[in-house]
Amino acid sequence: MAERALKLRISSHDYFLAQYSVCSNFRNAAKWVQSSLSATEMEIFRALPWGHLIDISPTQFSGQVFQMLALHLVQEQPDEELWFAIGGTLYKFTYVDFCRISGLPAGAEPLAGAGDVSGQESGDEAEPVGTIAKKYLGGSVDITHINLKNIFEKLKLSKRRDQMDVIKLASLFYIKCVLLAKDNTTRINASSVRLVNDLEEFKKCPWSLRSYKLLVSHMKGLMDGQPQKFKDRKENNPNYRNAKLSVY
C-alpha cells in the first residue's frame, strides 16, 4: 500500500485524549417503546424495517475504540466511505458493511419528500401537514424529540387510541432517537413528520442510508480543528486532560 494512501488526517504528534457523550439513546428508546406499546402493537412494530433493532441486547459504547478509529482516519478517501490506517494496514467501512452489521435493508438515494441528514427541509412548506400533525401536534410539524415524547405519554393514557397512529408516532420517535440521533432539542424534519402519515411510504424511505451518511459525515468532521483547540485549552489550563466531544 502506497505511503500516501495511509497518510492520516491527524498526525500522531497531534493525538489527544477525549471523553464522549452519545446522542443516540438506543437503550432508553427501546425500553420506552416496549413499555408504551401493547403486545399487538409491538408485533407490528417488530415487522417494520427497523423493528428488529428493538430486541438487540444493550451494548456498552467504547469511547476509547471510537477515539482510536477517529484518529486513524486516512486523509484521502471517498466521501461516502470510512477508511482507517491501523498498524500499516488500510481498513474500509462501507454502506454494505453498515447494512450487514445493522440488519437494516439497503436503500437507494433518499426520497424527495423525506428531508436529508443535514436537517435541511425538502418539499413545499405549503404541503399539507397530514392527519398525525392535526390530531396530535396541534397542526404543526415543528416538533422536537422531547415534544414527541410528551405527546406520546398522553396518548398512552388514552383508552381510545388509534393503533396505527401509535405505531407511526413510535416509529418517528425511534428513528429520531436511534437511526438519526442528535441532541434531544434538535427539531425533527418536518418532511419526516409529513411522511409518517403514510406508513408504507415511511417504510420505503432509506433510513439506513440516512443513518450511514450521518455517521460518515459526523465522524469525518468530528476531529476538524480539535487538536489545536486541545492545545489552546491545555496552554490556558495545565490541568486540562480530556476534550469533551459528542457522538451522533
Structure description:
- The protein has 248 residues and is mostly helical.
- It has one domain (3-247).
- The chain has eleven helices and four strands.
- The protein has helices spanning 26-36, 39-46, 63-71, 95-102, 131-136, 145-156, 163-179, 190-195, 199-204, 207-222, 226-236, and strands at 18-22, 82-86, 89-93, 243-247.
- A two-stranded parallel sheet has the order 1-4. It has a two-stranded antiparallel ribbon with strand order 2-3.
- A hairpin with a 2-residue loop joins strand 2 and strand 3 (89-93).
- Helix 1 runs antiparallel to helix 7 (163-179), helix 2 (39-46) crosses helix 7 and helix 6 (145-156) runs antiparallel to helix 7 (163-179).
- The longest helix is centred in the C-terminal third of the chain and has 17 residues, at 163-179.
- The chain is elongated and about 60 Å long.
- Residues 110-124 have low confidence and may be disordered.
